[in-house]
Amino acid sequence: MKKNTGRKRNKDLIKSARRILVGGVNSPVRAFSYVGGDPIPIYSGKGPKVSDYDGNRYIDYVLSYGALILGHAKGEVVQAIKEAAGLGVGFGATSNPEVELAERIRDAIPLLKKIRFVSSGTEAVMGAVRLARGVTGRDKIVKFEGAYHGHADYLLAKAGSGLATLGLPVSKGVPREFLRHTIVAQRGDIEYIDRIFSRFGSDIAAVIVEPVGGNDGVVYPDPGFLKHLRRITKKYGVLLIFDEVITGFRFHFGSAAQYLGIRPDIICLGKIIGGGLPIGAYGSGERIMKHLAPLGGVYQASTFSGNPVVMSAGIATLRLLALLRDDYERLNSLTAYLAHAICKKSQDHGVSISVQQFGAMFSIRFKRRSHFRVFYRSLLDEGIYLAPSEHESNFVSFAHTKKDIEKTIRAANKAFRVLAQSEE
Ligand SMILES: *Cc1c(COP(=O)(O)O)cnc(C)c1O
Questions:
Q1: Which CATH class is domain 75-323?
Q2: Helix runs in 255-367, H state only
Q3: I want to staple 71 with a disulfide (CB 3.0 to 4.6 A). Which of 169, 195, 359, 397 is the partner?
């Protein structure tokens, strides 16, 4: 393809990557070990589509693992990044973009009276958990199986995302001692929660939960269960942390907490609020946040926190999302339409799958992993790029059109036909 002269081709690039990067990647799921074969290296993206190094184009449902709700290279976001970079890419000092992004987040999520920015979702969760421990003077935390909260040692037990994809219950390299204070519960198991609380209630600092699960495929919210968590944490003086690194600004212009009508104590954000650049944030009311240094004794610091280029990408994104406030409904329906159609097409061909969809997130599960592999490769051949694991969620952006969705449905239909034939 003419356009790509002077550029490495897919195969060469993957080969070079494997020589110098561990497994050819900087994050495990990207290696395609779940679906097999070479991963697709991505050269560029625009709107709902990405291009690989051979010049093939794909409708993208990975969207930087949920960060790009406006699609790729959105004009206003790119412009904001350029302007901010022109003023200097970082200072390690207070600057206006930090204040503006924090204010915009607070206006959308009033619970967050005070905010601390960091550079990843992992750091946001680590900060929130340390804060909860500092505030309560307790050590134990409760997390749920299949949830992913970043790669902090004490949260890598029975975690979703890449750990689930690789079938690892706990990461190697995590001393057992570090998991001593982590209690892993099953989502929805009220009895177990009650038992844990009656036994350890006064030793628990926090319960951390993804209000809508995004790291074991899409896991539907269970408002009754979340309300129970809210009640029992209050009763025992335990802080409830919502990990909204994926869900913040995903379903409406605000938090999933608001969407579900539940008021946690601390909310963690990431992904969308950075407009595609590395970000994390956590926040709460004054009473809790004042425990954080420099006001209080809970220490958390970082060289790149509140980076002006990142903040500016976030501001541009939230500014556009505020204007799209009434369009979330359409985005959610478009995703529901896609999910239903995929389900229907699978039934037409007698292929057994389950589709989970909530707002602009969806995931597809097959009876057998080998079926997912065939389906996945078939979709890639048709120019559709899904997350390369059944444990990851797929996302729809405001840039996706009805035409993109229809094309995806046709590709899925073809993939199911291939699967049905291979079974005969
Ligand atoms: C992505 C994610 C994280 C980790 O964020 P990073 O920016 O990858 O460190 C934490 N929690 C949830 C729910 C996530 O989806």
A1: alpha beta
A2: 256-260, 286-289, 308-323, 328-348
A3: 397
